[in-house]
């Protein structure tokens, strides 16, 4: 997995972070802004995957709301197989309606609940162009909490090793 942040200097990363903390309504479809959002989503995925490679997923807590997120997710999506997410189904008209209702339940509790986040489609793979889906943060949290609690992320530590950042000591 390439590390986009290695190609940027400290000032560019800080500028991106400052820009990305502003409300989304302030932005238009500017390619440079979209690239910054993508970079932030990629960095989040890289950090999360490294945590999965290092920590037993069964004890991993992603938020202080994990119990509520998991319970609500399984009430709303009792039969969803979190091992393999079908992006077309998730983003179909019916899927969008169901997911939107779920997401809005966390609007006031989960910070940045609608922030764009990368999700692995297939739990057996790492983040790659073919295995990544752009979702909201709350969708990512719900699916990854379920994967962790239901034992689907247990093999990650044996299959992959955390990547090391270059240039840091």
From TrEMBL:
GO terms for cellular component: cytoplasm. This is Polysaccharide biosynthesis domain-containing protein. Gene3D superfamilies: yst0336 like domain. Pfam families: PBDC1. Residues 33-157 form the Polysaccharide biosynthesis domain.
